[in-house]
Write a structure and sequence with these properties.
Blueprint (H helix, E strand, L loop, with lengths): L1 E8 L2 E10 L2 E9 L9 E4 L1 E6 L1 E2 L2 E2 L4 H12 L3 E8 L4 H15 L8 E8 L20 H10 L2 E6 L10 H6 L3 E4 L6 H10 L3 E2 L15 H9 L2 E4 L8 H10 L2 E4 L12 E5 L2 E6 L2 E4 L4 E4 L3 H11 L3 H16 L15 E4 L5 E6 L2 E3 L4
Parallel strand pairs: 1-4, 5-8, 8-9, 9-10, 10-11, 11-12, 13-14
Antiparallel strand pairs: 1-2, 2-3, 4-19, 6-7, 15-16, 16-17, 17-18, 19-20, 20-21
Length: 368
């Protein structure tokens, strides 16, 4: 396979050709170029979404078949790899679900985004910062997490560090290769900083469902802005004000984007059911009857365009939807166009609309 255009490589923009064999990039040929000075399409690393609950009418909690449908929907919008993100549920339900998803993670992919593993968003969070998550909470234990790890690759766990027993658990989880994220939490600034020192690696949807910033009580938001190397942000321009987005982008060196998309992403506006609750989708926002935001309808191509609209260069914006999430998980073969990397490539036109998506070198129908 050969692809031509403005290639976003580790050396910067090249106008030239990318060659792939057996699902990997084998060579890049081209000359340094300013993409603003030519009309060739943009070729970017495939987008990586580390926090996504659903899309196209499918919900992660429904099992592997639904996750495959969700991954196909998001692939059409440029996402080539993702973490299937759960919500709080009883142990028996999560056990059955993770056994099902573990098999899906091991399957080769051609027609959808690959599922890199699981993001367990709860049940280890604060009842005071549930947001729209179901109230099926409990404190984490190593025994339970180890059982889950045996069923599916747990890449990320969101937890509230102030919950009794969690502070002493963070280091153990980090030693197991799990990225511990702080979120859905009322932790103080001091508790959050202590959790980072114990091995926590990031923050779940910075600003949302966490103790806020006050100049005498900096809260978890203050800890993230002052100390984080990585953190995730929902850039739908609804969850976070553009001004607050700018603050986080300046403060957190490798802030990356997630969709936090739910099943209604990709569906028309209207009334839907979210578990036992009614939800309304309108103008990109999904809200419960009481007005609370309930996840998003975002896709990663829209996230990229929103960042550029905010004033980021295309190169910087692309890093925040591909390279930085890959770096966060330690996946050096993802999130970049380089020899030896997987051939996950998104082709955009001059208006930054998706025109083609390749997963492991296989072309998908990218019409959104």
């Amino acid at each position: 396979m050969r692809l031509h255009g403005n290639l976003l490589t580790e050396a910067g923009w090249l106008l030239g050709e990318l060659r792939c064999e057996d699902g990997c990039i084998v060579a890049i040929d081209g000359e340094p170029a300013d993409p603003a000075r030519n009309e060739a399409p943009y070729l970017l690393p495939g987008f990586i979404d580390l926090h996504v609950h659903g899309g196209g009418g499918a919900d992660v909690m429904e099992g592997a078949a639904a996750v495959a449908r969700m991954a196909a929907l998001h692939a059409r919008h440029g996402t080539t790899a993702l973490l299937a993100t759960t919500v709080p549920a009883p142990d028996a339900e999560l056990t059955a679900l993770l056994g099902d998803l573990g098999r899906l993670c091991a399957e080769p992919v051609r027609d959808r985004a690959r599922v890199l593993g699981i993001h367990l968003e709860g049940p280890y969070v604060s009842p005071q910062q549930l947001g729209a998550l179901p109230d099926a909470l409990r404190a984490a234990t190593l025994a339970e997490v180890d059982r889950y790890r045996a069923l599916a690759p747990l890449r990320v766990i969101t937890l509230a560090p102030e919950v009794a027993g969690h502070a002493g658990l963070i280091g153990e989880l980090a030693q197991r290769g799990i990225r511990v994220q702080l979120g859905h939490s009322r932790a103080s600034y001091e508790e959050a900083v202590a959790a980072l020192a114990q091995g926590a690696a990031g923050f779940t949807h910075v600003y949302n469902a966490m103790s806020g910033l006050h100049h005498r009580e900096p809260g978890m938001v203050g800890a993230a802005l002052a100390h984080a190397e990585f953190g995730e942000l929902i850039p739908d321009l609804i969850h976070v004000h553009p001004g607050a987005m700018r603050v986080a982008l300046r403060a957190i060196p490798r802030l990356y984007c997630v969709t936090d998309a739910v099943a209604f992403a990709g569906l028309p506006d209207g009334e839907y059911r979210m578990g036992e609750a009614a939800a309304h989708k309108c103008l990109g926002a999904i809200r419960l009857a009481d007005g609370r935001l309930a996840g998003s309808a975002l896709t990663m191509d829209v996230a990229l365009r929103n960042l550029v609209q905010l004033g980021l260069t295309l190169q910087d914006a692309a890093h925040r939807v591909s390279r930085y999430p890959a770096d966060y998980l330690g996946l050096t073969e993802h999130g970049r166009l380089a020899p030896g990397a997987v051939a996950d490539v998104v082709t955009l036109d001059r208006a930054l609309q998706v025109r083609a998506v390749h997963v492991a070198g296989h072309a998908l129908n990218a019409a959104a």
